[in-house]
Amino acid sequence: MMTDADTRARAVAERLIAAEGTAPVWDVRLDEAREGYARISMTIRADMLNGHRTAHGGMIFALADSAFAYACNSRNDVTVAQQASILFLAPAREGDVLVAEAQEQALVGRAGAYHVSVRNQQGVAIAEFQGLSRTTGGVVIPIEESKS
Amino acid sequence: MMTDADTRARAVAERLIAAEGTAPVWDVRLDEAREGYARISMTIRADMLNGHRTAHGGMIFALADSAFAYACNSRNDVTVAQQASILFLAPAREGDVLVAEAQEQALVGRAGAYHVSVRNQQGVAIAEFQGLSRTTGGVVIPIEESKS
Amino acid sequence: MMTDADTRARAVAERLIAAEGTAPVWDVRLDEAREGYARISMTIRADMLNGHRTAHGGMIFALADSAFAYACNSRNDVTVAQQASILFLAPAREGDVLVAEAQEQALVGRAGAYHVSVRNQQGVAIAEFQGLSRTTGGVVIPIEESKS
Amino acid sequence: MMTDADTRARAVAERLIAAEGTAPVWDVRLDEAREGYARISMTIRADMLNGHRTAHGGMIFALADSAFAYACNSRNDVTVAQQASILFLAPAREGDVLVAEAQEQALVGRAGAYHVSVRNQQGVAIAEFQGLSRTTGGVVIPIEESKS
Question: Which CATH number covers residue D24?
Answer without folding.
Answer: 3.10.129.10
